[in-house]
Amino acid sequence: MREINIKLLLPYNWGHIRKIKIYDNKKQLITKIMHGEELTLNIDSDIEEVIIKLDFYKSVIKIPKNEKVYLGLYMDFRDRFPFKYLDTLKRKCLTGRFMTEEEYENFNLSFYAESFRWVPKAGIDKPTVFLGLLLSVAIVALSIIQQHNPYQDIVFFIGASGTISLALLYFEKDKVELYDYRNRMIASGCSFILAGLLASSSLSAGALLVILGFTFILRSIAGVKRLFNSANLTR
């Protein structure tokens, strides 16, 4: 028998409520582990590899021949747009490596270079977020009014998803991850423009949504640039 210590750390909020399965090279389940967990297990000495699996992700990692080994599990991706989304489509994005005891003890979320770029709650552009919430609610109302619009369901979905997404930002208690904040704001602005283009039965309302959508995006970009340059941005 040998002792294996396993720690799983995932970036942002990716997969934090999922259990990662770990198999041996005989395809027998060894254990399941969640983000932030640290497990110590005894395994057979003849196990040569561990297999990490979650949905379509799969990595095979060879085990050193030490009696006591330390395995850190993580997501291997380039943490910048758009590469981080492309890299997460790779099957081996969820992976890991065996470490020394010291490396294992120091293995924490600082491993992800960009994961500690946070926006303090006071740094959020609340007027712009509130404008986005009003636009989202207006889009929901517009979808209900436009009963004969063939894109009614899409318009409703845009409004409802925008309301939920921006409400989560607005009511965040302490801080928000910078890249998540930026992406939500820009994506919301683009969806407002799309909703305006799909509001076919009301030209004036559609034009207004397009204009406000562009305004929302420009304000969001200006706000994010300010946050990048702010001394209050923590890492």
TrEMBL record:
Keywords: Membrane, Transmembrane, Transmembrane helix. The keyword Transmembrane applies. It comes from the Bacteria. The chain crosses the membrane at residues 129-148, 154-171, 192-218. This is Uncharacterized protein.
